[in-house]
Design a protein that fits this description.
The longest helix is centred in the C-terminal third of the chain and has 16 residues. The chain is globular and about 65 Å long. Helix 7 packs across helix 10. With 369 residues, it is of the alpha/beta class.
C-alpha cells in the first residue's frame, strides 16, 4: 500500500516492555517526530513508562495498557480503533503487538517481520543482519529509517547523531531534591546511588558483599551519601547489601515508583549499577554512571551517553547472555571493590573540577533541561 505523509495525522507507537529498552527507543521517537512533525504521536505503553516520558516533547500523549494475555488483544484493538490512528509503528517483536493494530484496522502498519507476523504489516521490514554487532538504539532507528524510505523522503535517519537524552521539568527536579532532603541527605557532599539488583538476571548481579564493601568505603573515605535503589522485586538484594555494611546507607529500594526514581536520579553525582534500567535512565539524564558488565554485551546494550562508563573484566565465556552462571561467575567476581572505588573517585573529582575535593564541592543540582 503506497504511503503518503498527507494521510498520516495520528500515529500510535507500540512501546517496549522493559525500562532500559524504553530509554533506547528515545532516538527513534525523536526521529519520528522530525519525520512527521505535524502528526499527533501517541505512545502506547505500560503505566510505569509515564514516569519516563511525561515531559518528552517528541510525543503528544501516552496511551496506557497494562493488560496482558489473549483477552487483552481484542480490548486493545477496540481502544485503538476508536482513536482513529492512521499509522502504527511497532517497536516490539511479538506477534500480539502486530495483531492489535491489524485488528484495529489501522491503514499503515510498520515493524519487523518477526514471529510470522509479516502479513499483519503493510510495511514489513527484514531483521537487520547487524543486530548483534550494533547498539540496540539502531535497531529501533532502523524502523523509522524504513518508514522514511517508504515516504520517499530525502536523507537518512542514520546520518544524524542519535539523541538518547531525557529531560524533566523543574517541578520534577524540585521533587527529587525534596525526596533526598526528606531522607536526611547531607548537602554539599557527594550523592552516590547504588543499584545492586537486577530483575531479569541473577548473572548480571555483582556480588552483594562487594557492593557492601564499596558502599562502606564511599561513606568512610569520601563521606558520601550512599543510596540503595531498585524496584520492590530487588529489595532482598538491597537488604543483603545493607546487612553486610558497617555503616548504614539510605535504602530507597522498593520505595519509589519509576517517576520518583527518575527525579531522584536527576540529582545524583554518580550511579554505580549492574546492567539494569536505572543505568540507562541516569545516563539519559546526563548523570555520571558506572555500569558493571558481566554476562551481557555492552556493544549492544550499554547506556548510549558520554556520561556512562563501563567496568568490565571479560573472561573467554563472556558475553554469554545467560541469566544464571553455570560455573563460577568469573565475569563479575573479577571486578574488585577497589577497582570500582578508584573509578568512582576519578568520576567524582571530574564532576567538581580538577584538583577539587568531592566532599567539599558538591551541591544539589540545577534543573535538568
Amino acid at each position: 500500500m503506497p504511503l503518503s505523509a498527507q494521510e498520516i495525522n495520528r500515529i500510535v507507537v507500540r512501546g517496549t516492555n522493559w525500562v532500559g529498552d524504553a530509554v533506547m527507543t528515545v532516538p527513534a521517537l525523536r526521529e519520528l517526530r522530525r519525520l512527521l512533525p505535524d502528526s499527533h504521536i501517541t505512545l502506547a505503553t505500560r503505566s510505569w513508562a509515564r514516569g519516563l516520558f511525561e515531559d518528552a516533547d517528541f510525543i503528544d500523549d501516552i496511551l496506557i495498557s497494562d493488560e496482558r494475555g489473549l483477552l487483552a488483544i481484542p480490548r486493545q484493538s477496540q481502544q485503538w480503533r476508536k482513536t482513529d490512528f492512521d499509522l502504527a509503528v511497532i517497536l516490539t517483536n511479538s506477534f500480539a503487538s502486530a495483531l492489535v493494530p491489524f485488528l484495529a484496522r489501522i491503514p499503515f502498519r510498520v515493524g519487523y517481520a518477526t514471529a510470522s507476523r509479516g502479513r499483519l504489516l503493510t510495511l514489513p521490514l527484514p531483521l537487520p543482519e547487524w543486530r548483534s554487532s550494533r547498539h540496540e538504539i539502531y535497531y529501533y532507528l532502523n524502523i523509522i529509517n524504513g518508514l522514511e524510505r517508504a515516504l520517499d523522503r530525502m536523507g537518512s535517519v542514520e546520518e544524524r547523531n542519535p539523541d538518547a537524552s531525557l529531560e524533566i521539568s523543574e517541578l520534577r527536579v524540585s521533587r527529587g531534591k525534596g525526596l533526598l532532603r526528606s531522607e536526611g541527605i547531607k548537602e554539599k557532599l557527594p550523592i552516590v546511588a547504588l543499584c545492586p539488583g537486577s530483575i531479569n538476571s541473577r548473572a548480571k548481579r555483582w556480588p552483594a558483599e562487594r557492593f557492601a564493601a564499596l558502599a562502606d568505603r564511599l561513606m568512610k573515605d569520601l563521606d558520601a551519601n550512599v543510596i540503595l535503589i531498585g524496584s520492590e522485586a530487588e529489595l532482598e538484594i538491597s537488604e543483603a547489601v545493607r546487612r553486610l555494611m558497617k555503616v548504614q546507607p539510605i535504602v530507597l529500594t522498593g520505595r519509589t515508583r519509576l517517576a520518583e526514581l527518575v527525579e531522584l536520579l536527576s540529582q545524583v553525582d554518580l550511579l554505580i549499577t549492574n546492567d539494569t534500567g536505572p543505568a540507562h535512565i541516569a545516563a539519559a539524564l546526563g548523570r555520571k554512571t558506572l555500569v558493571i558488565f558481566g554476562p551481557t554485551n555492552p556493544l549492544t546494550t550499554k547506556p548510549f551517553s558520554d556520561s556512562a562508563e563501563m567496568l568490565r573484566e571479560p573472561p573467554d565465556c563472556a558475553p554469554c547472555m545467560l541469566r544464571d552462571c553455570p560455573i563460577d561467575h568469573r565475569c563479575m567476581t573479577a571486578i574488585t571493590p577497589e577497582q570500582v572505588f578508584e573509578k568512582a573517585v576519578a568520576v567524582l573529582q571530574g564532576n567538581v573540577g580538577k584538583g577539587s575535593s568531592p566532599q567539599l564541592s558538591l551541591e544539589l543540582h540545577s534543573p535538568v533541561n
